[in-house]
Amino acid sequence: MNIILTILIQLIIINQAFTIFISKGTLWCGMGNNAKNCKELGEYKETDSCCRMHDLCPYKFTRKNREHNGFRWSWRKIYTLTHCECDLMFKQCLEEEPIKKGSAKIWHSFNKLGIKCYSFLPCDQNNDLWKSIDNRESGSCFNGLKVIVFHSVDDYTSYMKNQFTKEELIIEKNILNSSLDRFYIEKTMKLKYANCLNETYEFKSKIINNFNEYHKLDDNIIEIQARNKHISENLNEIYINELMESKSKTTVLLAKVKDALMKMFSILT
């Protein structure tokens, strides 16, 4: 009974947090989407295209497809668990300068909800990496790899920064290049998203290219990570400024209520 009540509360919170507060001007930035087809975008086209790209990422555990690659996503979890590289590309898209309309607010909500993501680590090497997973959830070995669930995309990038040498990042890129072939393309893609199947099948190369670009494997990794941190802080600052510039006590109050709801959701999940 307690589990059912918890799930109902989660559904209410995530529905309110997404639908009411961040979907204005978009069709894809929320729980599900309101697009008639995979090509349709809302008024805030550039921002909506970031959410659309994230929705099209096929490397995910959903309420219907919970088990794959030696890992099972708990039936109590009501949101989709997406590969961290897809979440990272989503974040980068929203962070692109000049900042797109509504993007700072959307990322603030996504981040506050405590949405987790997953990636792969090798089973039979890098024992120091496995000793450092702390309380992060992980799967069983599958073809020499394990799924590891990170608390957020920022947790993922921080882990990569603190635990991986440049040589290990190259190994991880090779893991991505092989392990993503084992995943599935969701059946729903063949229906509503039929016209975008080509984009779905291109996701693997997008992830590999972005991984190489993000970590700048040929450049100074410390400088690149410092730059990425600055961009993230800038997006958060923009959201706070937008909130203050509204000069509406109601808007500020609603934002605080929304943050409280999302905090509750992150605790429950």
TrEMBL record:
InterPro entries: PLA2-like_dom, PLA2_histidine, PLipase_A2_dom_sf
Signal peptide: 1-19
Keywords, comma-separated and alphabetical: Secreted, Signal
Keyword Signal: yes
Subcellular location: Secreted
Name used for this protein in its record: Phospholipase A2-like central domain-containing protein
GO (cellular component) term, any one: extracellular region
Source species: Brachionus calyciflorus
